[in-house]
């Protein structure tokens, strides 16, 4: 997709082996009720100040200014409610999220999954990697809001055991092999990027979860645990929950 007026991937390209979207996959949007929880309220302290399309506007501004046309840079976001529901699915149906583990968002945009993950589970480190500089700068702005307005509410144990790291870089140039949970909102990632990311995911430890949208990581090292539909800023996406296994 080029830098069109709409960032909605209405007709994402399909690549044999990378996409197995099934219309019967159950949807988690209807179960959303997480905004009124403590993590939900803290999350909205960070993001409530921005318009819902702020990330898209910032991304589009940089792509236009710099002349970037790669479809891989197309912007879309998770919604807190459905992302929280996705975590609940992993927790209840797939043996649970690792305690004190590392969460990485590959292509983190303005950081929504990173802060959501940090608030929803007791990760020790939450990392966002974003190639576009303007989006990365918003993550740093959000980090300030977190430090000033959210962290003081979290309690000593959680706040002192939780680290964040935002990197303005190509995810293929960064080592994130220590991740226990990798999230990629990969609907618009190209086939070649997904192949490169699949190689990177081979370096993850056994048992690491890899959660992607629309396209999966490929190879015998990845076990597909579940396919589910999740509502996002641009509509429903198929989510793949996979796990790194020894093969
Ligand atoms: C669909 S957006 C997802 C944003 C965020 N993860 C979310 O779900 O709210 C995908 C992001 O990946 C970024 N991206 C694309 N290719 C990348 C790469 N090679 N390294 C790092 N970020 C990348 C894009 O700039 C975009 O912000």
Automatic annotation (TrEMBL):
GO molecular function: histone H3K79 trimethyltransferase activity
Domain (DOT1): residue spans on this chain: 1-247
Compartments it resides in: Nucleus
Gene Ontology cellular component list: nucleus
Alphabetized PROSITE patterns for the sequence: DOT1
Location of region: Disordered: 1-23
Broad EC category: transferase
Annotated InterPro entries: DOT1_dom, H3-K79_meTrfase, SAM-dependent_MTases_sf
EC numbers for this chain: 2.1.1.360
Swiss-Prot/TrEMBL catalytic activity: L-lysyl(79)-[histone H3] + 3 S-adenosyl-L-methionine = N(6),N(6),N(6)-trimethyl-L-lysyl(79)-[histone H3] + 3 S-adenosyl-L-homocysteine + 3 H(+)
One Pfam family from the record: DOT1
Keywords: Chromatin regulator, Methyltransferase, Nucleus, S-adenosyl-L-methionine, Transferase
Function in brief: Histone methyltransferase that specifically trimethylates histone H3 to form H3K79me3. This methylation is required for telomere silencing and for the pachytene checkpoint during the meiotic cell cycle by allowing the recruitment of RAD9 to double strand breaks. Nucleosomes are preferred as substrate compared to free histone.
UniProt family annotation: Belongs to the class I-like SAM-binding methyltransferase superfamily. DOT1 family.
Miscellaneous: In contrast to other lysine histone methyltransferases, it does not contain a SET domain, suggesting the existence of another mechanism for methylation of lysine residues of histones.
Protein name: Histone-lysine N-methyltransferase, H3 lysine-79 specific
């Amino acid at each position: 997709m080029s830098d069109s007026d709409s960032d909605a991937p209405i007709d994402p390209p399909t690549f044999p082996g990378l996409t197995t979207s099934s219309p019967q996959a159950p949807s988690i949007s209807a179960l959303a009720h997480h905004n009124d929880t403590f993590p939900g309220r803290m999350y909205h302290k960070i993001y409530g100040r921005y318009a819902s399309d702020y990330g898209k506007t910032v991304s589009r501004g940089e792509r236009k200014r710099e002349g970037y046309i790669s479809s891989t840079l197309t912007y879309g976001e998770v919604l807190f409610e459905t992302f929280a529901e996705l975590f609940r699915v992993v927790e209840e149906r797939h043996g649970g999220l690792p305690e004190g583990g590392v969460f990485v968002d590959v292509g983190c945009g303005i950081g929504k999954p990173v802060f959501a993950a940090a608030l929803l589970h007791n990760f020790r480190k939450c990392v966002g990697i974003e190639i576009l500089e303007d989006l990365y700068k918003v993550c740093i702005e959000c980090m300030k809001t977190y430090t000033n307005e959210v962290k003081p509410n979290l309690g000593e144990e959680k706040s002192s055991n939780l680290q964040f790291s935002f990197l303005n870089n190509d995810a293929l140039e960064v080592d994130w092999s220590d991740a226990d949970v990798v999230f990629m909102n990969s609907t618009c990632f190209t086939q070649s990027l997904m192949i490169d990311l699949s190689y990177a995911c081979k370096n993850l430890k056994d048992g690491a979860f890899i959660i992607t949208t629309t396209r999966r990581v490929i190879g015998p090292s990845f076990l597909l645990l579940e396919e589910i539909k999740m509502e996002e800023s641009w509509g429903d996406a198929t989510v793949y929950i996979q796990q790194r296994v020894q093969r």
